[in-house]
Amino acid sequence: MRIINNSIQARNIKNAVVTIGTFDGVHLGHQAIFKEMRRLAQEIGGETVVVTFHPHPRQVLSIGTERLRFICSQEEKLKKIEEFGIDNVLIIPFTKEFASTPSEDFIKDYIIDSIHPSIIVVGYDHHFGKNRMGDYEMLTQLGKQYNFRTVQVEAQDVNEVAVSSTKIRNFLWAGNVKAANELLGYPYSVTGTVVEGNKIGRTIGFPTANLDIPNEYMMINNPGVYACQTMIDGKPYNAMANTGLRPTVEDRTDGDFIIEVNIFDFNGDLYGKTLKVWFLDRIRDEEKFKGLEALKAQLEQDRKKVKEYFLNNPSK
């Protein structure tokens, strides 16, 4: 997949099949758009082009920043887009000045004049440009003027729920990773560096890898205990993770979440290494216990439940 950072590089794309959006999470709805793009590109002997933005518009415009969370980082988003077979990604820097661009001007200046699309593919609820005034109908009219076709992909439903990044974020905010994963089409994950903690876990038989997440917007799980998986040196490991404030062992008032991962059947040193953790299901809420013995007893029950989860879900 080719990453394009300016419109000049996009001018040599042949018979471009284009889509536009932020694509946070690259969920099942996005995947349906990419699948349709690949089909259309094959029909006309063209290339697929995803036009996206960085930083995310909500960051720049300060929309809902008190609960601003993203499903995946820019790097992970690009990896996912590549996994689903896209040929090119054009990344447009998103600024407050750019946000004021009228919808028609955006399509003409950034899409038509640079990419010369043969087809533009959008989702069922797609809006773009200043105040999100642009939509499928506008694209259809512009297509008649500038000689491109517009294709709209229907909503993707899972258990009668229309897939959207907002719904996935809300599920994750509530700790319902199972529902979020169903809409994503793959397990939600976080990636961070393993740092030293207070090492209390190892004293009660539950050593943990404490993750430092570089992007504060990635911490979107509700406090609790989760069934997880991770990968170390190419080998998968089952695990359980606690996300939250660790109320039993310390009185945190800063509100910053900590992710501690107890990896089953692993005893190596992970300090300083990058660890990716996939969240599969929620086991319980985070609780405050009277002491370490009570915490240990509960963790033993948690580990039993997580192991039962993997026995009942062998494909995970």
Structural descriptors:
Rossmann fold; Elongation Factor Tu (Ef-tu), domain 3; 2 domains; 6-stranded antiparallel beta barrel; 10 helices
Protein topology:
Blueprint: E1 2-4, E2 16-20, H1 28-44, E3 48-54, H2 57-61, H3 74-83, E4 88-93, H4 96-99, H5 103-115, E5 117-122, H6 136-146, E6 149-152, E7 157-158, E8 161-162, H7 165-173, H8 177-184, E9 188-195, H9 200-203, E10 209-212, E11 224-232, E12 235-244, E13 258-263, E14 274-285, H10 292-312
Parallel strand pairs: 1-4, 2-3, 2-5, 3-4, 5-6
Antiparallel strand pairs: 7-8, 9-10, 9-14, 10-13, 11-12, 11-14, 12-13
Helix pairs in contact: 7-8
Report on the structure:
32% of the residues lie in helices and 27% in strands. By secondary structure, the chain is of the alpha/beta class. The protein has two domains: 2-161, HUPs (Rossmann fold, 3-Layer(aba) Sandwich); 187-312, Elongation Factor Tu (Ef-tu), domain 3 (Beta Barrel). The strands form three sheets. A six-stranded parallel beta sheet has the order 1-4-3-2-5-6, sandwiched between helices. Strands 9-10-13-12-11-14 form a six-stranded antiparallel β-barrel. Strand 5, helix 6 and strand 6 (149-152) form a beta-alpha-beta unit. Helix 7 (165-173) runs antiparallel to helix 8 (177-184).
Q: Which homologous superfamily in CATH is the superfamily of the largest domain? A: HUPs
Please tell me the total number of domains.
2
Rg computed from alpha carbons, rounded to a whole number of angstroms: 22 Å
**Approximate shape:** elongated
Unreliable segments of 5+ consecutive residues: none
Going across the major beta sheet, what is the strand order?
1-4-3-2-5-6
CATH C-level of the largest domain: Alpha Beta
What is the terminal-to-terminal distance? Answer: 29 Å
Main sheet? 6 strands, parallel
